[in-house]
Amino acid sequence: YGFINTCLQSLLIEKFGEETWEKLKNSAEVQDAFMTYTVYDDIITIKLIQEACKILGVSMEAILKLFGEYFFKFCKKSGYDRMLRTLGGDLTEFIENLDALHSYLALSYREMNAPSFRLEKGADQEMLLHYYSDRSGLCHIVPGIIEAVAKDFFNIDVSMDILDMNEEAERTGKMEHVVFLIVQKPHRQIRRAKPNRLQDGQDIQRDQEALQAAFLRMKEKYLSISVCPVKKSRWEVVRSIVMFGKGHLLNTFVPLYPEQLWIEVKTFCNAFPFHVVFDESLRVKQMGVNIQKYVPGLQTQKIRLDEYFSITHPQVTFNISSICKFINSQFVLKARREMMPEAWKRQPTLKLRGQMIWMESVRCMIYLCSPKLRSLQELEERQMHLSDLAPHDTTRDLILLNQQRLAEMELSTQLERKKEELRVLSKHLAIEKKKTETLLYAMLPEHVANQLKEGKKVDAGEFKTCTILFSDVVTFTNICAACEPIQIVNMLNSMYSKFDRLTSVHEVYKVETIGDAYMVVGGVPVPIGSHAQRVANFALGMRISAKEVINPVTGESIQIRVGIHTGPVLAGVVGDKMPRYCLFGDTVNTASRMESHGLPDKVHLSPTAYRALENQGFEIIKRGEIQVKGKGKMTTYFLIQNLNASEDEIMGRPQTLLDHKGMICCTKGLQISRQKAMHMEEFRKGTEFTNSEEWMPEGSPVSGQDSVEAADREPSSDQTETHPFVNDTLPSGFCALL
């Protein structure tokens, strides 16, 4: 049942943590939760235990014993504490009544296949516990349970060792039979308890002597005053003592038996309507009236009981010797369907539950029993009535009470099922909520979105400085005119997906996209001092990513224009149906002008953007003075590369210890140096290069001045490093090798 698996789950979580249970659950491939009253395959429990052994690195015996100890505590917490405490006055009685407890629990757990126990008492407080089970390999649970019970309920310490283990061919096939030796460990409080026991023994002896003297005095008194001088029986004398309130019979009680049985045969068979007396050869000698009614074949002369019944619990062979081994157990007999009348074979078979008592004088066994019924429905299915049960038989009350318990169990099962459904729905809801939040945070800044979710008004914010970037696709209008719409969508989706990834790499905020235009901002909505550097690195990554997007018209890589400007903005949320986080101010217009007045495959910088990036490790060249629409003449610049970051760093790719490009730089460093020198000489002569990659390999770090105007100025600290090589290309190659 799910109760067992839930106990195992609780044990692992409590002792080893939630992470261990999650790991074990995934490894064993089992469900998240178990229903208490739902039946599960035994293989699930076995797999959980086996995986626990692997994950925790302990033996199966240790896990099972730990589970046995915890199972006892788990049962107490689950409402079975009082039931377990009242099972017996000592450990022996507790073990002897375990089968009766399992029989009672079987009323609620119909599919329960519980083990059987048989106890043999030995000398010096030693006991032999015989354990029978259809499940092999789980016997080590028993020592954990018994030792925990002995310590908790009876305040004694016991040790259990396996003396013998084998498989017995019983009625249902092979059954595991394990014999445990139970030895009580010496207790420190025994010596202190001895004086009390001695005193108790003296008190009992004193009471017995006083009782005997009182008995003799009362006997003489009542015999002397009797009208008829006849000898009174011992029962009359005892009755006289009890009636006068003298004497104490609690510790000296001796039962009295009549000389003959004062009950008629017919009366006995009616008073105990479900009983059977059979001899050593299983021949039926006597039976109750109602068992004859529901098993008519028993009225046949010299019939054998095993011809009409089979033993279902305990699982032993149907003979006198096997029954005597389990004489203290509760026996469940099931009528054989094939021996029933033809009209009765469709209805459920009769089951009897009761006690076996051996009568030595007549060498016969009497089986005092009652029908095993769980509910009124089962009573009707067998076409029986409550009147068929003897008035003194508590089975009547048991059926009515269990009917109510079954209803409560059904309600509990429904609640568990609903709880599990709610747990699954809650889990799915959390996943969907996360998706929704991810989508919402992609449209609005997180703190703005949270304010809107709480119903708060989002006030506009002023940012004194930020960096805005605009980009568009060169000849996009011509591409749209020559292609199918789906091709345009695929191209833009490919390009924007790459750009979106870069926003996470460089931590810039994507404002919006309109057609082929892409807009991001650094320093908004969270102010940060390195906003210009972040946007510049993002722009360099955009230029590299654009080379991976194919123009559907030409089949070559697309080209983009990028414009960057730094300045103050006002930011806020506009709209109700589709609220957008928008930027307002002249900075937005100027950034857009930098993009529209830029050149293909170039990152166009405004004067303020240049000043923000100056001396920050970027290579920037001066474009010169140009006419900007609505702004007049402006001196602008082109961003070439980041001197301190490789292409992999710009693109957010994983770094490798030995880079192929570093090897190229190492072997061809002299050629690269010459190309750079030629480039700088031609630049000084006024030659304008449209693409720096024509003379410099991608991603190779180059040390030099930021711009032509800086040639006569003192170089910055990050540009004045000296190396024993022509330039810093060779050292970078050797560093890669090192």
From TrEMBL:
Residues 688-726 are annotated as: Disordered. Pfam families: Guanylate_cyc, HNOB, HNOBA. Belongs to the adenylyl cyclase class-4/guanylyl cyclase family. InterPro entries: A/G_cyclase, A/G_cyclase_CS, H-NOX_domain_sf, Heme_NO-bd, HNOB_dom_associated, HNOB_dom_associated_sf, NO_sig/Golgi_transp_ligand-bd, Nucleotide_cyclase. One of its GO terms (molecular function) is heme binding. This is guanylate cyclase. Residues 467-595 form the Guanylate cyclase domain. The keyword Nucleotide-binding applies. It comes from Myotis lucifugus. GO terms for cellular component: guanylate cyclase complex, soluble. It is an enzyme of class 4 (lyase). The keyword Iron does not apply. Keywords: cGMP biosynthesis, Coiled coil, Cytoplasm, GTP-binding, Lyase, Nucleotide-binding.
